[in-house]
Amino acid sequence: MNKPTEKKKILIADDSQMNREILKDILQDNFAIAEACDGDEAISALASDKSISLVLLDINMPKVNGFEVLEEMNRTKLIEETPVIIISAENAPSFAERAFNLGVTDYISRPFDAHIVVRRVVNTLVLYGKQKRLMEAVQEQIFERQKNNSMMISILSHIVEFRNEESGPHIQHIRIITEFFLRALGALHPEYALSEEEITLIGTASSLHDIGKVSIPTEVLNKPGRLTPEEFAIMKTHSAIGASMLEKLPLYTDEPLVKTAYQICRWHHERYDGRGYPDGLKGDEIPMSAQVVALADVYDALTSERVYKAAYSHEKAVEMIKNGECGTFNPLLMEVLDKCADGLYEALHSTPDVESDLRKVAAEVLKRVLTDE
Predict the structure, then answer these.
(1) Quick one: which of 12, 62, 140, 260 is 20 to 30 A from 182 by CA?
(2) Cα gap 85→225, rounded to integer Å
(3) How many whole angstroms separate alpha carbon 68 and alpha carbon 73?
């Protein structure tokens, strides 16, 4: 036996009980009905009841009018999820123009024909349902592309890591730490806040930070003891070589991911005081993406076992970095490390929800594309 289809819920927001009753009589055979007698009630209903599929909204209401309801729906992004049809006795073109500018789907003037109301409600719900399914399909395609890009870069970076004989999770750690620092920096200093799409792009690009090590001789790369000055000079070439490899790609050199990976490859060993390599960049001459990856790389090197050292504890690694034992870093990043060290440890020791993160990025990309259009 087939389960009966659940009726879609419509919120009727009007201060006139008579108007609400008329609309309710017209629609209740085919739809579930919720009512609000003013704008305040409408906003509360929308915030608490996620099953509302459409709003029939009057403009002239006490306390909070229809335009103010629309402004609140725009502020909370509800207008993107719930279509609104204005039903009002206000016939001035300026009212309709303002309503459409605030995102309403349709505008019906009183007095109205009952059949017209039903038809417009049905059409709006059908069109919105088709649009929603189309957007979900496009978003799924974007998600799959993001996932495949991330997977291929992860495979490539792990090949480099395998040759380097570093700890298995090194590439994953760098990405987690990089994204953690970027989010924390944006939270502490909003002028540095990035979108999830930008954070994920930098995190993905960080996976290629050591790609130049494929050119370093194995006896230098995996030497268990301290490197000689000559061997260290060879090791230092990996950053410039990795950047050159990306710069000479036959395709995609203009892609944001490749440009960001180039910056990280070349400059993740620069230091804020100018004592890094290969170019001796100083302060804000170093892109923030490379500065963050540099700090992530140092922290993970300290807390991981290497062929030449045992692993330090999280607390000891943070102390060493803050004491300047590992070079000089941007004071803003030191502030993040100081205030968010516990969160960093938790982020590294929890299971990352990569799929959820990529789906957030896919939604963000789709929204940006639609906005740009």
Answers:
(1) 140
(2) 73
(3) 9
CATH label of the domain that carries residue 233: 1.10.3210.10
| pLDDT tens figures, 224-249 | 888 999 999 999 999 999 999 999 88
The domain boundary residue, chosen from 80, 112, 144: 112
Residue 106 has pLDDT above 50, yes or no: yes
- Residue 166: the pLDDT is 56
Residue 128 lies in a domain: no
Same domain? For 279 and 313 the reply is: yes
**What are 111's two structure tokens?**
């007095």
Report pTM: 0.62
Note whether 88 and 59 are within 8 A (CB): yes
Q: How far is CA 284 from each of CA 243, 276, 291, 329, rounded to the nearest angstrom?
A: 19, 13, 9, 11
Residue matched to tokens 């009057």: 58
Which amino acid, one-letter code, is at 294?
Answer: A
How many angstroms separate the CA atoms of 52 and 34, rounded?
8
> What pLDDT does residue 330 have?
97
- Longest CA–CA separation in the chain, Å: 90
User: Would you say residue 333 lies in a domain?
Assistant: yes
How many CB atoms are located within 10 Å of the residue 143 CB?
19
Which DSSP helix (H) or strand (E) runs through 85? Answer: strand 84-88
Give pLDDT, residue 221: 85
Residue 2 has pLDDT above 50, yes or no: no
- Identify the domain containing residue 13 by its residue range: 9-112
**Separation CA 142–CA 34 (nearest Å):** 36
Cα–Cα distance measured from residue 149 to residue 357, given in angstroms and rounded to the nearest whole number: 14
* SS3 call for 166: coil
Q: pLDDT tens for residues 328-352?
A: 999 999 999 999 999 999 988 876 6
CB 7 within 8 A of CB 53: no
Helix, strand, coil percentages, rounded to 5, for the chain:
60, 10, 30
Domain of 50: which CATH number?
A: 3.40.50.2300
Pick the closest to residue 132 from 363, 294, 359, 373 (CA basis).
363
